[in-house]
Design brief:
The complex is a heterodimer of chains A (401) and B (410). By secondary structure, chain A is of the alpha/beta class. Chain A is built from 18 helices and 11 strands. The two termini of chain A are 21 Å apart. Chain B has 410 residues and is of the alpha/beta class. The relative contact order of chain B is 0.13. The chains are: A alpha/beta (401), B alpha/beta (410). At the A-B interface, helix 3, helix 5, helix 6, helix 7 and strand 6 of A face helix 2, helix 6, helix 7, helix 8 and strand 6 of B.
Chain lengths: 401, 410
């Protein structure tokens, strides 16, 4: 694919060097869902040429992505635009898919059981949907909020409520479930690409947004499966796996901590000025501190409220305690740690220059990340020159040049 | 039945990691066909062997449910890395692999003579992923961290604030995001190594992998907007149903769905007028929620979900762990599946986050975890300085440590 190899160097500098792991891999991103776009972002970040179809199937997008979020999700991609519902557009889509190494798309609940969407031969195909393409809930209507509730994430994110009789499980604001599904989709695609490189046939992969979170419910579900009883919200909060734990109020904010061994426990007592209750035999061992957390937590809270967050953090870390301030997003964005590691990057966008989270890990220099493309920006390069579409085909598919 | 054609067949991984993030990454690789060798100590051992849950609450480090859920499909060899002979054996195993995963604090592997440099000198294509809370560079490189302190530092806990009180995000979120990212990173680097014959040492920060998923709030912050906009539609909430702490979540996104919900509720008098339009519903969100709660509390949350979905209303049970384990959809698809482990037969645990159409056997069951040192003989026999006496000694120590009293492994 000589054209795209050249084109990527000029169009997506972020992924343009030949030592990028996914150099030469062409990904077609068929749907505008967050999960699919984040998968595409992760593949583009490591060298894949990702062709985003704007105006294709408007699937899986109940909360429209726009502005800075779109700039983040679509950075470093190519964009083509045509009407995939026309006969000519459908033919172009099929040709794009046939030339691709990986196709990533979202399947709406109404289409989950549609066999016409199956393509037995072709590229690695990653299909993301709310509940998957099979099973009794395949056709269920859903969104990120509901996916977090169905999967149990909302339950486990509402352990520390003042009154669980009035405060139900709570979904984390934003679209975390879809982002997790996007990470799973990129990783699954990479598994399949590895297999294909070794001579395996292309794989078809079914990813459910809800199940990508279910896969995270490892501790909470084994408690039940192993007969340790029904893990209620109050029980999980009052009998944690280790203690001290959780976010705690300080003199001027909050800290979070987890102490799993004796050394940090002794160190915490030292930081707090060796309170008398620290020698209580009920708190003498790690299992006992978990067992008697109900009694220990109020005593601990009284002492923590006397000390500033920065002091607890600095003195605690000096002594090997896993403790951290509870930052808001602005505080996290300005943390020295991330500045020194150059995690946040400069990125241009249609709305001007932006800062954005960089790659989740590096396989080389952070490099420049180019702006998200405008819809159809690469029609001429991709559809006309690389795919070889005629002007007539493009006109019939509504693809402007 | 073992599928010999899994995509990662032929990939060999040495896993020095502990607790959740690293082990989950190698679990994913093992399930997809890689040979994963877990190199673990007995004093101390992987903490998840010691947290349970155990059947009948009797500690047995070969039967910890949490360990089993993140270590299925691996092999175990027990080596005391502070011992020069045993660390040399670990080095032999590592350099025979394509990938090494480790999660010691910065400098940990070096202390045991297992630096990336020493390994890549023997195997230039080797990929090593070093996973730590905040990365191996920067002022926090040496900081102790667990998933909840990472979530707190990066802003996730604060995003989940409830009435001004930050609330932890569950499901060991940051650990498992990092674990998935490690698997992705390792496979990317292996692909490049095959093309260039050059390995890589990846410095993976758990904090940064979590922040990559937080593009939405960070971009809003940098653009000077509110971190996250309020929900634009109503009703969208959880509502009490029959049972102890049982709830149903409903998220109505269109006026048509609202009409269907009203119809399912029997067209109550309060649900008319300006509520037919979303703007009216958003303005009276609390009032609507109170009415819906009065209605939902008469029903079982799974049965009501079925009824609402049949009517075209987006709704799901707000699942607790029992609901997740028993969920007929997750069970039918194998997202929750029995573990094929003789010591704990048939326990239902979470399966993979994906389904490969050509490998449906992965959905049917989860393979067993390794018992402590179970593969000592298989993996150590024939290595330089691995005498029969030493292997027997290591296996005896592993058997003793597995069943010792509480705290024995520390």
């Amino acid at each position: 694919m000589p054209f795209l190899d050249q084109g990527r160097a000029s169009l997506t500098a972020d992924s343009g060097t030949s030592d990028q792991p996914l150099s030469g891999v062409v990904v077609v991103e068929e749907s505008p869902a967050r999960s699919v776009r984040f998968a595409g972002r992760l593949l583009a970040a490591y060298g894949a040429t990702v062709i985003q179809i704007a105006g294709g199937h408007r699937a899986g997008d109940p909360d429209e992505v726009s502005g800075p979020t779109a700039a983040y999700l679509d950075a470093g991609k190519l964009s083509v635009s045509f009407d995939a519902d026309t006969l000519a557009g459908r033919a172009i889509l099929d040709r794009l898919d046939a030339r691709a190494d990986v196709v990533v798309r979202f399947i709406e609940p109404a289409d989950a059981s549609n066999p016409a969407l199956d393509r037995p031969d072709g590229p690695v195909t990653v299909e993301v949907s709310w509940f998957g393409r099979t099973g009794p809930w395949a056709g269920y209507l859903c969104d990120d909020f509901l996916a977090q509730h169905a999967s149990g994430l909302a339950f486990t994110s509402a352990l520390r409520m003042a009154d669980i009789t009035t405060s139900g499980p709570r979904a984390v604001p934003g679209h975390l479930a879809e982002m997790v599904a996007g990470l799973a989709a990129a990783t699954a695609a990479m598994v399949a690409v590895t297999g294909r490189d070794s001579g395996n046939p292309a794989e078809r992969i079914d990813i459910s947004v809800a199940e990508s979170i279910v896969s995270f419910m490892r501790y909470e579900t084994v408690i039940y499966s192993y007969g340790w009883g029904l893990p209620s919200r109050s029980k999980l909060a009052r009998s944690p796996v280790a203690a001290p734990v959780f976010q705690q109020a300080t003199a001027d904010g909050f800290v979070d901590m987890l102490l799993m061994q004796e050394e940090p426990w002794r160190a915490l007592l030292e930081v707090l000025g060796s309170p008398d209750w620290g020698e209580n035999e009920l708190f003498a061992t790690h299992p006992l501190r978990s067992q008697y957390w109900d009694a220990l937590e109020p005593l601990l809270q009284e002492e923590l409220r006397k000390v500033k967050t920065a002091t607890l953090y600095e003195e605690g870390q000096k002594r090997g305690i896993a403790i951290a301030p509870v930052n808001n997003v602005a505080e996290a964005a300005s943390a020295k740690q991330f500045a020194e590691r150059e995690f946040f990057i400069a990125m241009s966008s249609a709305d001007g220059d932006l800062r954005a989270p960089g790659r989740p890990f590096r396989l080389g220099p952070q490099g420049e990340t180019l702006a998200a493309p405008l819809p159809g920006q690469h029609n001429a390069h991709v559809l006309r020159e690389w795919l070889g579409c005629s002007l007539e085909e493009l006109r019939d598919a509504g693809a402007g040049l | 039945m073992t599928d010999t054609n899994l995509p990662l067949r032929g990939l060999k991984v040495a896993d020095f990691s502990r607790v959740v993030a690293g082990p989950y990454s190698t679990y994913l690789l093992a399930r997809m066909g890689a040979e994963v060798i877990k190199i673990e100590g007995v004093h101390p051992m992987d903490h998840t062997r010691e947290v349970g849950p155990y059947t009948d609450a009797t500690m047995d480090r070969n039967r910890s449910g949490y360990f089993s859920a993140v270590n299925a499909g691996k092999k175990s060899v027990t080596l005391h890395l502070s011992d020069p002979v045993q660390s040399a054996l670990a080095l032999e195993i590592a350099v025979s692999c394509d990938v090494v995963v480790e999660s010691f604090l910065a400098g940990g592997m070096e202390r045991f003579g297992l630096s990336y440099e020493s390994m890549s000198a023997r195997n230039p294509s080797l990929v090593m992923v070093s996973c730590s809370g905040f990365g191996r560079t920067g002022p926090m490189a040496s900081h102790s961290a667990y998933m909840n302190t990472i979530a707190a530092f990066v802003g996730l806990t604060s995003l989940n604030s409830n009435g001004g009180f930050p609330t932890p995000i569950g499901a060991t979120f940051s650990d498992l995001v990092a674990g998935t990212s490690i698997a992705y990173a390792a496979l990317l680097a292996v692909r490049r190594a095959k093309a260039t014959s050059e390995g890589a040492h990846i410095d993976l920060s758990m904090a940064e992998t979590s922040m990559a998923l937080m593009g939405e709030p960070f971009m809003a912050h940098f653009a000077g907007e509110a971190e996250l906009p309020a929900p634009k539609h109503a009703p969208r909430n959880v509502y009490r149903t029959q049972g102890d702490d049982k709830w149903i979540a409903i998220s109505v996104r269109t006026d048509e769905q609202w009409a269907k919900l009203v119809n399912t509720m029997g067209n109550p008098a309060w649900a008319d007028g300006e509520l037919v339009a979303n703007a009216g519903r958003v303005a009276r969100r609390s009032e609507i929620d109170a009415h819906i709660s009065e209605w939902t509390r008469n029903f079982d949350n799974f049965q009501l979900t079925e009824r609402l979905q049949a009517a075209g209303v987006p709704a799901v049970p707000s699942s607790d762990p029992e609901d997740v384990v028993q969920n007929p959809h997750f069970r039918a698809r194998g997202a929750m599946a029995p573990q094929d482990y003789a010591l704990e037969p048939g326990r239902i645990i979470p399966n993979l986050p994906w389904h490969f159409a050509a490998h449906t056997e992965l959905d049917a069951s989860v393979p067993p975890p390794p018992q402590l040192g179970e593969h000592n003989e298989e993996l150590l026999d024939g290595l330089p300085r691995a005498s029969a006496d030493l292997i027997a000694h290591l296996s005896a120590l592993a058997r003793e440590a597995a069943r010792g009293p509480a705290g024995h492994g520390h």
